[in-house]
Amino acid sequence: MHITRRSIAVGCVTFVMLGAAAWAQGPPPPMLPPGELDRLVSRIALYPDPLLAQVLAAATYTDEIPEAARWADQHSYLHGDALAKAISEDQLPWDPSVQALLPFPSVLDMMARDMGWTSQVGNAFMAQQQDVMDAVQRERHKAYDYGYLRTGPQVVVTPGPYITIAPVNPGFYYVPLYDPLVVFAPPRPGFFVGGAIRFGGGITIGAAFAPWGWGFARFGWANHAVIINNHPWTRTWATRRTYVHPYNVPRYAPERRVEHHEMRGHEERREDERRR
After folding, report:
1. What gap in Å lies between CA 69 and CA 111, rounded to an integer?
2. Are 48 and 85 in contact (CB under 8 A)?
3. For the chain, which terminal residue's Cβ has fewer other Cβ atoms within 10 angstroms, N or C?
4. What is the rounded average pLDDT for all residues in the chain?
5. Is residue 173 packed enough to be buried (19+ CB in 10 Å), middle (13-18) or exposed (0-12)?
6. Across the chain, where does the E strand assignment appear?
């Protein structure tokens, strides 16, 4: 094969461009071993499957979590359809996967309070999705084998090669509260395992939240698939800057949200003047 100086030059330019693109994306996070992944997912491994799927997806947008947590806290008095309406009307700039957690202020607060952990989870989920799912199953099997994880009034636990956790009422979610140091270790003699996992107040997730993927989020544990809004979640470390997951809600740029707030504030002032 005849190689010219021109072909060598073109090859060098292409190599440099590809190398520059890879460098701009940043090096991938270090691959975490099974034990470290187990520790990483332990605080969320016992969440109901749909909630866990939404948390993992949202964690890949780590930088959006703190603002979302503040918004959720400021609007914690809203529930159900009223909350869904407020989320839509406020034209929030965050990815729909992050907005999907706004009905769960305690979950967003947990993520925002430990951004190092949230960043690690998001990066691991993008770089090692299958390994993260395997870690969840290892932790669930521990909790089940030790007698902590069982079906109850809040969740349905289905054992097997892959343990699934579903809400008893698909439109009503409870967030489990537990100490990972307890539920993933053998119980002490005389310890009441039935009280190790508690639940906070129930959260209504009705049809109004379907545009954010609720009702259509699940795991395909056997083939390591994560389904959000009835579509496989395929955001990886390599595609994290370009991946756009299909949702039924519009995405608003931050500047448009500012304009919307200014317009809404002006309308509210005019309404106040009319009332006076």
Report:
1. 8
2. no
3. N
4. 87
5. buried
6. 155-158, 164-167, 172-173, 176-177, 198-199, 203-204, 218-220, 225-228, 231-232
Report the C-alpha dihedral over residues 40, 42, 44, 50, rounded to 10 degrees. Answer: 100
Q: Are strands 176-177 and 155-158 parallel, antiparallel or unpaired?
A: unpaired
Cα–Cα distance, 255 to 25 (Å, whole number):
25
- The residue extents of the domains of the chain are 29-275
Higher per-residue confidence, 267 vs 96: 96
Token pair for 158: 């289905």
Instruction: State pLDDT tens for residues 72-110.
Output: 999 999 999 999 999 999 999 999 999 999 999 999 999
Q: What 8-state DSSP symbol labels residue 209?
A: G
- Position 174, amino acid: Y
Those residues whose C-beta lies under 8 Å from the C-beta of residue 82, and which sit 6 or more positions away, are none
CA distance 262 to 251: 19
Residue type, 121: V
| HSE, side-chain direction, 13 A CA sphere, residue 101 | 32
pLDDT at 5: 53
Reported confidence tier of residue 260, pLDDT bands at 50, 70, 90: very low
* Structure tokens belonging to residue 82: 């009223």
* Phi, psi for residue 33 in degrees, rounded to 5: -75, 165
- What predicted TM-score, i.e. pTM, was given to this entire model? 0.84
